[in-house]
Amino acid sequence: MSNDDRFTVNDPYAQPPRKKSSGAGWIFGIGGCIVAAVFAPFLLVCGCCGGLMQWAMNQRAEMIATAVEGDETLRQEIGDVSSCSINWSGSMSAGDDVFVFDVSGDKGSGSLYVHEAGDDVEKIVLHKGDEEWELTFDPEMLKDDWTTDPEVTELIDNNPSIRQEIGEIEKCEMNLGDSISEDDPNLYIYDIVGDKGRGQLEVMFDDDDEIVGVTLKKEGKDFELNLGDEPSLPPMK
Question: Which of 87, 158, 181, 183 has the highest Cβ tally under 10 A?
Fold first, then answer.
């Protein structure tokens, strides 16, 4: 079984779900998901955004399992990991900045307690029965490499307003909290950073998940991007 297959068995959120009533580019920073996780019980009950939260945390679970899979204790107590998923109730009761993931393998099952400090993981502790072990992990596996949404970036990269106000795009990621707070189910908010400045994008999707409008907001000014008609500049190098 491949690494990807381990986390898709009987997982209804293996593919990115719809956030409210439509889809979008689902590349966003894990840090935003972790911050918003405190709202998880409400989101999961209301159903409108619970799929997004569940999917995001499943991606986090995969990263955690991959980061510790080489630890000798994990190999001995859990074996080859077959599943890893967020435990919401365990996370809520574990204390501040601690997230609990249930993990199972061919030798047993337990819980991974992930202690966070901001966006960084301080330690990962395996709990199994009455015993616990601090595991070694590869921090490179936990770095957020989802800083650029390729669908949105490709669409706006050569837009004259983007080139003038933002410059070469360094980051374009969905802002989870701001997107959830929007009343319009088809409107998503993205944080965008370039070598000339930063701002936010309001990205409107239709019911077929196609981008139909983008507005750049920067320093109190709005720039509506005419994606179809506005002439493009040569690609940046």
Answer: 87
Give residue limits of the domains in the chain: 17-142, 150-225
Q: Amino acid identity of 115?
A: H
pLDDT of residue 51: 53
Long-range contacts made by residues 153-158, C-beta under 8 angstroms, separation at least 24? 155/211, 155/214, 155/227, 156/201, 156/214, 156/225, 156/227, 157/235, 157/236, 158/232, 158/233, 158/234, 158/235, 158/236
Tokens of 158: 């050569």
CA dist 12 and 200 (Å) reads 31
Give the contacts of 128 (CB within 8 A, at least 6 positions apart). Answer: 77, 78, 108, 109, 110, 111
